[in-house]
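Entry — protein

Goal — fold tokens:
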Amino acid sequence: MKNKRFLVLSGFIVIAALSRIVPHPYNFAPIGAMSIFGAAYFTDKKFSFLLPLAAMFVSDLLVNNLLYANFYGGFVLFTPGFWWMYGSIALIVLAGIFILKKVNTKTVIAGSLSASIIFFLVTNFGAWLGNPIYPQGLEGLFMSYAAGIPFFHYTVLGDLVYSGVMFGAFEYARSKTPALQTVSTR
């Protein structure tokens, strides 16, 4: 039973990550949703971190080497600035562990919005540090955040939509399948 739950949770995260190869608006992605989803449901919290990060890595390989192959001009193992994206995933998982101790509509929305904000703050901070077009002072940092604002609404919308689908589908499946219930360790 425990293995079935683990496989289903992992499957949700992998499918969400692979949805990144489907055409979508910039930043309308499952990154925050799959991170808080793992945080909410994996009883062994190491998988809350490992599965979203691994799924992101695999989907990055596909996105970078299939969809954006012409842009990069060769095989790309790691997305430029990946430390900031993957670091934001880890922070989102950490926030999700605290916010989603109980899964309900209010905590899922709070977790989703927190994920969007964390991703925006961390990745734009990384863009400021790593991109020479931004002066390395407060002015440059604010420029980096201002440049990200036009994409932020898609981040929020993507996190909310994917969270709604992932949490809603899993809660429905859990209500119909006893093997997906949390296994008590007592």
Notes: Helices lie at 2-18, 31-41, 45-67, 69-72, 82-99, 105-130, 138-176. The first helix runs from residue 2 to 18.
